[in-house]
Amino acid sequence: MRTIAPERKVRSISFWIRIAACLGIGTTLLGIIGYQHLYRAQTSANQVSYETVTTANKQLRKLILPDSTEVWLNAKSKIRITQPFVAAGSRSVYLDEGEAYFKVKRDVSHPFYVVTGPLRTRVLGTQFNIRAYQPKKTYQVAVVSGSVAVDKIDATGAFAPMVKQMTKGEVFHVTSQNIATHARDQDTELMSAWRQGQLSYLKGVTLSDLAAEIGRKHDLQVAVERAELDKSTYTIRLKQASLDEQLRQLVVTTGITYRLNDKQLIIYPQNYH
Fold first, then answer.
1. Are residues 113 and 128 both part of a single domain?
2. CB 70 within 8 A of CB 165
3. How far apart are CA 187 and CA 144, in angstroms?
4. pLDDT in tens, the chain (273 residues)
5. Do 168 and 48 sit in the same domain of this protein?
6. Whole-angstrom Cα distance, residue 150 to residue 164?
7. Number of domains present in the structure of the chain
8. Does pTM top 0.85 for this prediction?
9. Among 193, 214, 248, which residue terminates a domain?
């Protein structure tokens, strides 16, 4: 069960960010759980400044940027918006951690950039999902409509193309081992269903990834004992359900056992002894 933040407007130097409420998830949602930390990072006059938005565990949030681009933030995410937002002929945001869905307002004169660790997603007008809970290690972009390109930032700050064009149904994934894959004909709508409070569709993830997802959904401290024992990757539709139901789903899918003590969850791989 995840908290949906209420509508809120925040005054910045040059624009308003409108934070709109999304649909509620679950019949037992009685109020706002967790917190949102929203602040403005100011730097000196000759440097870029940012408007920063974060979400807590169990929390989803929707933003509307000054150009009418819509952004949904998943739980435990952080995004920075440059100020001024439209500058030097482009629009830029930084997804420092987490997962976000973008519905970008088309503007051929001002390309839209999402910087995630060493990678930059470049678009004109499209809808896509980026998942990067470990932005320096893993990255996934899934295109729902339109097209995007992916560039890699080198040590000098220059950009080199990794994928020149991706269109609807394509997914580009970089693993923690720096292995890049590019798949076509994927159900990218399903991968983005989390923003509507339906489910989390996770593809090719490790047991540790699944454990972290459970922790974000239920605001738990989660540890996997001897995670190296499970070298499998999993594809799972993690239902929006109670903690007990989701843990039962993991038991069936992965063969784990677990121990739950208040807000701490310890997961043991199938081969753990």
1. yes
2. no
3. 9
4. 444 454 333 334 334 444 443 433 332 222 222 323 333 343 344 467 999 999 999 999 999 999 999 999 999 999 999 999 988 889 999 999 999 999 999 999 999 999 999 999 999 889 999 999 987 788 999 999 999 999 998 888 899 999 999 999 999 999 878 889 999 999 999 999 999 887 899 988 999 999 999 999 999 999 999 999 999 999 999 988 899 999 999 999 999 999 999 899 999 999 887
5. yes
6. 7
7. 2
8. no
9. 193
